Amino acid sequence: MIKGGGASTAPSALLLVGYGRSGSTIIGSALGSHPRLFHAGELLWLPRRLKDPERYCSCGSLLAECDFWLEVLDKLAARCGPRAIADLGRLSDQFDHRRWTWTHALRALASKSSEAAEHAALNLALYNAIAQVSGADTVVDTSKLPARALLLATADPVGIRIMHLIRGHRSAIASLKRKHKKDPRAGIPQDRNGRSAAWTSAAWLRRNLECEALAARTPKATFRRVRYEEFINDPKCGLSAVAEFLGIEPEAFSTKINVREQHIFAGNRIRMQGFLSLEPKTINVDHLPAHDRVIGDALTALGRWHYKW
Ligand SMILES: [Zn+2]
Question: What is the pLDDT of residues 82-124, one digit of tens each?
């Protein structure tokens, strides 16, 4: 599906940041229903997932055989050379897939690291290649890593918009407690063991604190905070707010989404469902066991105080 046709003032990328299980796949997919936006999913995984022989794209193809991504890689190589995706993988390992990404990014910016600049330049070239192939103006990247958003927004303060997606810690605890059996075609690439309430709560707090540090370093006009529960309670209102943020027309969004027309290779397994419907609903996670609620509430108290819930 060829998209686009909008004014050239739209940002080149909208970066969703926040903790995992924040609903970025469903919200990214809804954003991708707009003709001027392309939902690319968790792009930080692209170099690694291209090497995975069992990785499926939401269009139904194996990722390594998906025509869309093959064309994107061709465009990227034409612009940045044949080693572009290998270099992107190396730099992504260095900046995106490591411990303490946030402090590493701060140090890289302070020292004017040439590798951080190259990491940003290659990612911006990737957005450009995706926009060329899809015809959209703005790429929606749901990588969620605040350090990555900091590096890219520093390199391109005009073209990057950032949306901090926050979902209540109890939802994250409930989601990460579940175990899953490997099923690549259903979007579960490996067996997953459940995480404890304490582990999830600590990780939730740390990631959201990094998002707050990112907000403090980002111009207000290019940063928005979105509460998942409020968005899902009234999706049309949520989509209109994003349209206003990006300067695009809100009427073109749809809440009935054909995910097979998108090319999402990483993120929640709902990407493999074919069709998604974004109906207004109220989130209820009070079914969590009492001890998980107590541990989660205690460990996330600082964040909940900040967000006033
Ligand atoms: Zn595909």
Answer: 999 999 999 999 999 999 999 999 999 999 999 999 999 999 9
Q: What are 172-175's contacts with CB under 8 Å, separation 24+?
A: 172/19, 172/20, 172/21, 172/22, 172/200, 172/204, 173/197, 173/200, 173/201, 173/285, 173/288, 173/292, 173/296, 174/285, 174/287, 174/288, 175/21
DSSP strand pairing (37-41 vs 13-17): unpaired
- CA 56 to centroid of ligand 1, rounded, Å: 8
Distance 55 CA to ligand 1 centre (A): 11
Range of the domain at 293: 13-307
CATH value at residue 123: 3.40.50.300
Q: How far is the CA of 30 from the centre of ligand 1 (A)?
A: 17
Residue 140 maps to a domain: yes
Distances (CA, A) of 254 to 27, 176, 244, 282, 283: 11, 29, 16, 20, 21
The alpha carbon of 190 and the centre of ligand 1 are apart by a number of angstroms equal to: 20
Q: What is the pTM of this model?
A: 0.90
Q: Is residue 3 part of a domain?
A: no
Is 7 inside a domain boundary?
no
Query: What total of structural domains would you count in the chain?
Result: 1
- Report the distance separating Cα 280 and Cα 268, nearest Å: 20
Residue 36 CA, ligand 1 centroid: distance in Å: 18
Indicate whether 1 belongs to any domain. no
Give 58 Cα–ligand 1 centroid separation in angstroms: 6
**pLDDT tens digits, one per residue of 19-73:** 988 889 899 999 999 999 999 999 999 999 999 998 999 999 999 999 999 999 9
Higher pLDDT, 274 or 150: 150
